[in-house]
């Protein structure tokens, strides 16, 4: 008899008891009797030669060895459950629930949904706008697209897509536009700059990157969302700071201009999902996004 794996039926019962915090709940989930689950636990402990649970009040508590085995069993069973669910759904899979900030959703993701449908019709999405960074559990989401800097939660798988690039943008119709085209960046000191509450340090970061003293810059109107900031700039209300992909089409159409181009920051465009997710479409979406951001 090989002993490189524990008795699998007994391990399944153990994982259910540890996860559900009780023999009765495990028996109900596994559709067996309370006594059958107890026998499986005894079999596993006998095979190991050590206790996995101890009595604690009217219930059970994992021993240190039990906690180690439970962690390993969860790492094995959770992806297996997810993969099995995906396989059972077959070709009619539920859309991936993708969260992203509203500005990315409106100015970058939505304009590319037609391209996604043509190139990857299997990657159907349900898009959800979220303005704050998702919690460590990515509650309610299969994945999240964002511009962020490490560290990231340990439970996330993080797909790096592209380095963030930012730069000043303004409408060519803005009254001061002609004086800035061809001028050095220090000319910005003569103007109050539009800013956003979601990225308050963006101007300072850009200025530092181009060796411009950030203390020479004057901040003007502040907007809650990056989307509103960029619409204000496009409407000729002033000079904004923006990630390049979010304004690339506006620059190409002449709606905005970027007199000094864009510079790299420490942030990245990333697609994040739970490490427990075994959904192959996460990696496929990451690869498509990576190509779309080029």
Structure explained in plain terms:
- Keywords: DNA-binding, Transcription, Transcription regulation.
- It comes from Lysobacter brunescens.
- By secondary structure, this protein is an alpha/beta fold.
- It has three domains: 8-89, Winged helix-like DNA-binding domain superfamily/Winged helix DNA-binding domain (Arc Repressor Mutant, subunit A), CATH 1.10.10.10; 96-144 and 273-292, Periplasmic binding protein-like II (D-Maltodextrin-Binding Protein, domain 2, 3-Layer(aba) Sandwich), CATH 3.40.190.10; 164-267, D-Maltodextrin-Binding Protein, domain 2, CATH 3.40.190.
- It has eleven helices and ten strands.
- It has a six-stranded mixed β-sheet. Strands 1-2 form a two-stranded antiparallel ribbon. Strands 7-8 form a two-stranded parallel ribbon.
- β7 (192-196), α8 (202-209) and β8 form a beta-alpha-beta unit.
- α2 packs across α3 (34-48).
- The longest helix has 26 residues, at 64-89.
- It is elongated and about 85 Å long.
- It starts with 7 loop residues before the first helix and ends with a helix.
- The model has no long low-confidence stretch (mean pLDDT 91).
Question: What's a quick, concise take on this entry?
Answer:
This protein has 294 residues and is α/β, with parallel strands linked by helices. It is 41% helix and 22% strand. It folds into three domains: 8-89, Orthogonal Bundle (Arc Repressor Mutant, subunit A), CATH 1.10.10.10; 96-144 and 273-292, 3-Layer(aba) Sandwich (D-Maltodextrin-Binding Protein, domain 2), CATH 3.40.190; 164-267, D-Maltodextrin-Binding Protein, domain 2 (3-Layer(aba) Sandwich), CATH 3.40.190.
